[in-house]
Amino acid sequence: MKRKDLIGIKDLAKTEIEEILRCSDTMRGILQSDKKTDTLYGKNVVSLFYENSTRTRTSFNQAARILGANVESVNASASSVQKGESLIDTGKTLDALKTDIIVIRHSMAGAANLLAANVSASVINAGDGCNEHPTQALLDLYAVKRRFGEIRGLKVVIIGDIIHSRVARSDIRAFNKMGAKVTVCAPYSLLPDSVGELGVSVETDLLNAMAGADVIMALRMQLERNSGALISGMGEFRRFWGIDGDVLKKASERAILMHPAPINRGVEVTGAAADGEQSVITDQVTCGLCVRMAVMSMLKGGAK
Ligand code: CP
């Protein structure tokens, strides 16, 4: 991959996405065989998180360690950010410490791009506000490809808090680039005004959206971004847009249930659906490890 940074799916060509998916498969082979790899030996990887995370930060850190890198985590709430340091000054500090890759999550859309323009290190966007979460979309593609073999032509339905979701924006771009047919389904209040520009079909009725669906992607209600104020209550959301066993029966027989997690069980999906046979939510996490190994190797890896 001939680029310094990974900021968004928007920037990636289909051929680059295909290359990342192939490399992710190689990484899965390495994980399964317990082989060591020193692709990032001697490189310094810093995860710089201004927002909470469990799976993204842990899997980036784990991926970097498996590849032989030195790994540091900066938690913004316990760093000099609290003393008023700007994002650019923090980035320049990490540059001066010979950091090779900065993995950043920030509440502000555009933060990863701003950082990338001001540091020598490679920057990977681990989620910037409501804008993009590119490695989530890549891992979702990879999980779907592993299940179906081919992404082109699949019907992908993304349900819920579309307006606040960086996962939705990255997934829509990613699945569209790979030739899937994407439908978004939500109450109007949880759809962005620009939904018509996203290249998707729009449904407000969940059962209509489910017809023929191969991939059902439930999104977390982002209460920290005030989603609750846009609907009349979680009960209403659960009743009309929540996924349970009966809803899943309306989709294709081979349909899989995905969720980027963390899940609000009993809101976006019932516990039984999340843990059921059609769920690939746990496999998504493993796919995330493979994809993040692939992305870091391709941005900064040596010949090995
Ligand atoms: N899917 C996702 O980004 O999860 P975390 O917030 O736990 O990283």
Set out the fold topology:
Elements: H1 14-33, E1 44-49, H2 55-66, E2 70-75, H3 87-96, E3 101-106, H4 111-116, E4 122-128, H5 134-148, E5 155-159, H6 166-177, E6 181-185, E7 201-203, H7 206-210, E8 215-218, H8 234-241, H9 245-248, E9 256-258, H10 271-274, H11 281-300
Helix pairs in contact: 1-5, 1-11, 2-11, 5-6, 5-11
The structure holds phosphoric acid mono(formamide)ester.
Phosphoric acid mono(formamide)ester (CP) is lined by residues 53-56, 127, 136, 260-262.
Structure, explained:
With 304 residues, the protein is an alpha/beta fold. It contains eleven helices and nine strands. The strands form two sheets. It has a five-stranded parallel sheet with strand order 7-6-5-8-9. Helix 1 (14-33) packs across helix 5 (134-148) and helix 1 packs across helix 11. It starts with 13 loop residues before the first helix and ends with a helix. Bound molecules: phosphoric acid mono(formamide)ester. Phosphoric acid mono(formamide)ester binds at residues 53-56, 127, 136, 260-262.
